[in-house]
Every structure is written in C-alpha cells, then in structure tokens.
Known about the structure:
Elements: H1 12-30, H2 35-52, H3 58-66, H4 70-81, H5 83-87, H6 90-93, H7 98-105, H8 119-138, H9 142-158, H10 175-179
Helix pairs in contact: 1-2, 2-4, 8-9
Amino acid sequence: MLKHNADISPPAExxxxxxxxREQHVLVGTSASKxxxxxxxxxxxxxxxxxxIDHGGxxxxxxxxxxLSERSARRYMQLAKARAEIENRPRVAxxxxxxxxxxxxxxxxxxxxxxxxxxxxxxxxxTKALRLGLSQVRCEQAIAASNALIAINAKxxxxxxxxxxxxxxxxxxxxxxxxx
Length: 180
C-alpha cells in the first residue's frame, strides 16, 4: 500500500480516521465509565492512520488533523496495542483510569546500575551542575550553560533515570547556611 505524503490532500480514509480520533479524544475526557473504550478506539484509529502516512509526516499529520500531542497519541496507541491484555483482566478493566491501564501494561524498568550514586549524592551533583548552568546563563555563556545541562542529563541516565523521574524544588537558602 502506498503511504500518504502529509504535504498533499489526504485521502478520505485518513480524513475519516482523523475525525474518529478527534471524536474519541473528546469522549475520553467526558465519559468516565467508558474512558478506556474511547482511548482504545482513538489508539486503533491512530495506528491505522500511522500505517498510511509517509515516514516523517506522522507528527505533522497527527497535530494538524487530530490536534493531539505526541504523548497523548503514544498513550492511546499503547493502550490499543495492549487492549486484549487489559480486557483479559475483567475485574480490573472496567474500573481502570488511563494512567492505571498504562501502569498495568508498563514494562518493568531496568534495574538501576550498581555503580549509580545514592539519591542524595545524585541530587547534590545535579544541584551543583544546575547552579553552574544558571550562573553561566546569567553571564551569557550559552555553550557552557548547555554543556552543564547535558551533564545533568548524563548523570540522570547513568542512574537509570530521566527528567520525568526528577522533581526540582527551588527555595532560598537560609541566611545561617549562606554564612557558613
């Protein structure tokens, strides 16, 4: 089957899939008892559309025709792919939220590397790198600031984490600590 180029007028099948995705996406947010049913339908339509779109045109088509973020589309498609697995748990499936269903099908994360620093050591390292990066931004040293942020990301990756696993809290230092 020929794939569709996102730069030309889409065929009727893609228009219908986009309409279905938009409709189901709205219903996901309005129908608590049928949230998963609508998410499955949106995901199935997205998967079908993705098969019809040329490589490189998916993100643009998804946004222009469905108004969905990459994250929402990915979540709907993950749920659609795992529909049978979720529905085979009848006591659970009817009562699941989207997040609970995604947790149910989530693959266990790889164990953290043994050489990874403790959480407090990692937090201290990241805090220092963040301070360095921010001070370099103030001094208009964009490359150095960028390198500091890249270093933070590398530290997180070496600990088996990513930015979604980290919470940053900003609070002023107390005067006593600053003087010490």
